[in-house]
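Lab notebook, bench 4. Continuing the backlog of folding jobs that were queued last week. Each job is logged with the same field layout so the records can be merged later without manual cleanup. Today's entry covers Competence protein ComEC, a 676-residue chain. Filled in by technician R.K.

JOB TYPE: sequence-to-structure
TARGET: Competence protein ComEC
LENGTH: 676
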Amino acid sequence: MASGIGLYFSLDWQPELWWLGLPLPLILLYGLAGRTPLVKGGILALLLVVIGFDAALIRQALVAAPVLQKRLYTDITGTLLEISAGTGGRRLVIAPDRSRDGDASKPLPEKVRVTARQDISHLVPGQTIRATAVLLPPPLPTYPGAYDFQRDFYFKGIGAVGYLTRVPEVLADAGQGDQNHFGLSRLSAAARDRINDYVIRNAAPETAGFAMAIMTGDKGGLSKDDLEAMRRSGLAHLLAISGLHMGMVGGLIFFSLRLLGSLWPRLALNFPIKKAAALCALVGMAGYLFISGMSVSAVRAFIMVGLMFLAICFDRTALSLRNLTMAAILILAIRPESLLGASFQMSFSAVFALIVLYERFGHGIRVRAGIGSPLRGAALYLVGVLFTSLVASGATALFALYNFGQVSGAGVLSNLVAVPLMGLWIMPWTLLSLLALPFGDIPFFLEMAGLGIHAVLETAHFASGVPGAVLSLPLFPTGTLVTLVLGILWFVLWRGTVRWMALCAVPLAALFLLAEKPDILFAESGNLYLVRDRDGGFFVPTLRADRFERERWQIYYGQDRFTKIGTAATDGPFSCDRDGCVFTGFERTIAFPDTWMGIEQDCDRAHLVLSRQPVTGRCRSPALVIDRFDLWRGGTHAVYLQQDGRIRVESVNSVRGNRPWVPERFLDRAKGQPSG
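JOB STATUS: finished
OUTPUT FIELD FOLLOWS
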């Protein structure tokens, strides 16, 4: 199924709906295949690939909605769906009343996400509001082949982003406005908003963001320094509501109720308190899932831990790869796009590795933990945490390097401190604070949880500052990831000598690493470009403009920093004046003009001109010209200067092709080919 989903998203054209009929002939072939296991197995495998492909196609058809094509200053009247924290202010998701706002020929998107820096304490999800906002199309990938933010927003139903210019006006209270947006998601958003406000009122400012992250899944309240420290120390998984949190909530409910039931001998002897506690834990986890916003990691965790408690009810094995497979199938069927996210990849890889090792060594650990003194049990618990952290870190390292270009080397030891704090201190007090929410402001529980949160943050900052705490490498191609993952699965799932065929995946994966990376990147805005010389230097014209793009480029190339053009170290390859810069290298002259005069000069002497100004048709001498219009149509451009003198160019949109989330201005163009 994952292969079919990956195939769908790798296409540069949009399949028609008739592709949904492909499973029918395969089902017929399967019925006519006789009893040959190899033939039937091959047809079944192909059928599952097609089912995954069709699941992604169906999901795209269900979420299809208008996407904003250009900057727009407008009034928005609609239903407030969600409020979340953010580093630059509160983030609002609004469903505009498209019958009242926008041009009928070009309607507003179904949902927009805007940032509010004003005081919006009077707003709650469900209200009908009127706001004035500057709306922008969702951001493009930062370079060809990078993570597609537009696709991510498209499948979330968000067709525009932007910011408010004034305080919104409330037209109708929750429950009195547009009834089309009433439902589970609105109620969940309202619950999260109430909990976040409760945390802000009762928790210390330095711990409130962490508390909101583990209670409602809203990480926007964390400071940038805390978030970066959590990532670099290998503790970022504590912020995402995943198996750890869901297991802790379910485990606390399960063991507490089972303990209370065992204190009444008559009840314990005549009633299945273990199964009753498991069912209550399921209900509690469902409530936790509801207030968490039902993210992919939370849904996956609920399914996995829920299957474990259901297995207890039916006297079956609680942890198995079959349970993990069922969780994966459900998520891939409902949200196929989650396959492309780091959350899905890292959470499933960690649980997969832990289950494989648990099936091998789990029984012996349980036996040893139940023998001896409590001190022995505590020591084994710490060893188990250390071993679990080591296994999970190793299992997710490949995906961390693929998505973020770095992996934490300090994660094993930092988790040894943080995970017991989460399980034994922070989560119990957090759960008590949730239970106390209906009784008004009771800061005691959040203050107690804050003591543990403060210790975790201190651990994160200390671990992230240790030399060598983070290993950074250039991002590697998707082909390398897929090949290595298939090789690991082959080795784990097969038995006997055939499993050693998985070693063939290593040289195959290495072949993808031979793919070249661009020598020049030219950002969509035209304000930032990058040039890589033959000596391994990376040069940019500014360290201020397009900071997000520059940081993503640093991850892509595995660099801590770039060199700014104009310093003494760059006097050789670059010559700059008020009209622009010229780079001499690769046996070519490459010009980056800033003015009309610079364009006229560079058109007569350069092999390649990259201009943030429109060049029109007056520049005929260079081999290639990329100007403002090319950037507007194609997004960020990547230039490959090949040894034989040829120049190859890719743009963000030429790589993505004709897909529903790609801007309309590109779809009918020449596939991102620059002018000249």
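OBSERVATION: The longest strand covers residues 72-84.
SIGNED: R.K.
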